[in-house]
Amino acid sequence: MKEPLVITAAICGAEVTREQNPAVPYTAQELAEEAARCFEEGARVVHLHVRHPDGRPTQDREVFRAAIGAIRARAPDLVIQVSTGGAVGMSVEERTQPLDLDPEFCTLTTGSVNFGDDVFLNTFPMIEAIARKARARGVRMEVEVFDAGFVDNAMLLVRRGLLEPPLHFDFVLGVPGGMTGTPDRLDFLLATLPEGSTWMAAGVGRFELPLAREAIARGGHVRVGLEDNLFLRKGVLAQGSWELVREVAGYAREAGRPLATPAEARRILRIPARA
108: helix, coil or strand? Predict the structure, then answer.
């Protein structure tokens, strides 16, 4: 039997704006409405960044608290994954604020990467500080992989006692400056994974939906949403992340893979059920 597919919805990110797509949510209520719509379409995880009302990215714990509360009220079974990446240029102290809320799931980027005209900086001391705090709070971590060495870096953290196998990886491919989002790059990364790992693919821009098909075919999982891609197809803006989730759910049906239930998603990702 094929393993159920876990879809993660990355609903707003830190970089995209309403000037680029009017559907990008900013406020807690907008994030909650979008998350609930994604859940209805088949997403079981929401990858959460938060914004000020004017759209500026923030990692303020109280802004996260409001967004998490609003999402819980609308979609109580949804897994909420907080970002510890924040926005380019933020300090570790800023980036780790949402961990103070004891979320069930978070991201951990295990290397630095050129990010458009900027650099998404993650030195080993920074990576270790984030991992140490998440581990101390009992938060399950997803390893974000933008380039070739990031898997090796994650295994170094395992040896240092900061990550505990089996690991879960997210291949974020197609960022300008990082590894591109073609099938051969995905296959290369899959060949580097330690036994027992789970993984998903998050294609950026034009790579998002084609890479989703590739991940489904290879038995992996998928992340989609306006954070990574603003378009349903060339020249056609997505009406929201929910529309991209709906598209991927259709790919899963075509491939004969069922969508994970909330309980199955937590089992696959090894996230303990919330009390």
Answer: strand
Per-residue confidence (pLDDT) for residue 275, from 0 to 100: 58
Q: What is the pLDDT of residues 217-255, one digit of tens each?
A: 999 999 999 999 999 999 999 999 999 999 999 999 999
Instruction: For helices 124-136 and 150-159, give the axis angle rounded to 10 degrees.
Output: 60
Q: Where are the domains of the chain?
A: 7-269
Do residues 237 and 231 touch, judged by C-beta distance below 8 A? Answer: yes
Range 7-269 classified under CATH 3.30.1390.10? no
Cβ 74 vs Cβ 66: under 8 Å:
no
Which residues lie below 8 Å from residue 210, measured CB to CB, with a gap of 6+?
Answer: 181, 203
For 60-117, what is each residue's pLDDT tens digit?
999 999 999 999 999 999 999 999 999 999 999 999 999 999 999 999 999 999 998 9
Q: Other CB atoms closer than 10 Å to residue 196's CB: what's the count?
A: 8
**In the chain, beta strands by DSSP E:** 7-10, 45-48, 50-51, 57-58, 79-82, 105-109, 113-115, 118-120, 140-145, 168-173, 198-203, 221-224, 231-233, 236-237
- To the nearest whole percent, how much of the chain has pLDDT over 90? 97
